[in-house]
Amino acid sequence: MLPDGFLRLDPRVIQVRQIGGLVTAVVFGAVALFVLGSVGLRVRPTWTIVGLGAIGWFVGTILLAVWHWLWPVRAYAHASYRLDADGLEIRRGVIWKRVVNVPRSRVQHTDVSQGPIERSYGLSTLIVHTAGSEHARVALSGLSREDALALRDQLLPRDGRDAV
Length: 164
Prior knowledge:
Blueprint: E1 7-8, H1 12-43, H2 47-77, E2 80-83, E3 87-92, E4 98-103, E5 107-113, H3 116-121, E6 123-130, E7 137-144, H4 145-155
Antiparallel strand pairs: 1-2, 2-3, 3-4, 5-6, 6-7
Helix pairs in contact: 1-2
């Protein structure tokens, strides 16, 4: 159950993060295999060590892939945002909860970006640049393209003046 006024991210973000995670698992597995092979060529291990290394590599890669498949579902359930008269509030975190508040008066400019996987799913990331040094760049990924553009437009100053 979400608190009043909070919205969920687009559910397609789960698939986008799962795909990104599986790509990470494949790359990690390939690098680990390369390292194991390089070490194996220099050390000349016994077949027992080669077998244990191969089993460890396989199990590690599979566990990493499973983690990256299941975690986005949990993370999605714990992510929400709200835009009100005061500004943008983003809540995230399964284990470590994080709440980021961006007051409207601190917004300098906004961007909407899409990576190739996001674009194929019709999703975007809203990037809010603020005055100050901490959290000077706040990103909210997992929004539909339309929602990201609408949030961007709502965060811009309404009176035609710069926010700073």
